[in-house]
Amino acid sequence: MTRSPGDTDRRNSWLAELCFPLLFSVSYVTGIVDRLSPAAPIHSGSPMYAIRILDSVDLSILRFLTGFAGESHLLDHSINALSRLDMFKGMTLICLFWYGWAERPAGDTSHAQEERQKLLVRVLIGTILMGALSRVLQVALQFHQRPVLSHLGLNFPLPDFDVGSLNSWNSFPSDHAMFFFALGTGLWSVNRTLGLIAFVWTIVVIDLPRVYLGIHYPSDVVFGALFGFLGMKAFMALPLSRIERLLSGWRHAHQGVFMAMLFFATDEVGHLLAELRDLAGSSAHMLIH
User: Fold this and answer.
1) Which of 137, 102, 124, 136 is nearest to 240 (CA)?
2) What angle do CA 141, 51, 216 make, to 5 degrees?
3) Pairwise CA distance, residues 143 & 127, whole Å
4) pLDDT digits (tens, 9 = 90+) for 263-285
């Protein structure tokens, strides 16, 4: 039976409309799995102990950084603010995303801008998937507790947040590092300057404060960044031209809806999918009880 062009268009529109809801469903389900998964005990027979050298390097760096703790209330307060407030973390990087979306250099054609925006949509989708993958890895790779919860005898600064709100079973890899390095890698593929700013901002403003406060070991951040970089590179190399054409066609046919969904998606990314995770956590609590 031959399908009419109208049937094909409706099918393609339906597939495009499902794209963002499916992505957020993946993140939501991952959050539920995160909350429901029991913490696996870490013991001396664990294969992870084969890389003890990382522990030594991690502790050396943490001892150096915590040497500054308590020396300046302004410093500790500022670092707490950088770590706690999304306006200094994801929302800043999302501003770079929107700059890349709206920018149109002199002499740039409409086609070039269209291709750049297609690439940015792919970057956003990849970032959301890397965020979900980071939580899967934290569940699967039972490596070590967060430094601030590990009784290392180090003088971490007093946090301006509830330490009990942190997961207590594993901090490897850093989801912030993986998430935002993935975004930076994608931005680099669109605009080298934007990508460089994103990398530097992620290291200095997002990741370093989290190490200083004992939320992550340095190795959590290094491997999170590596996983994010490689994951985004792999995703960008996938042959997704057909899906991109579907999304592009649907975008032009439903410009208002598309931009509303894009804004929603970037806002969630800017907050590290926090509300989706919170919804997933409450759903997991309901399922358990």
Assistant:
1) 124
2) 55
3) 24
4) 999 999 999 888 887 787 777 66
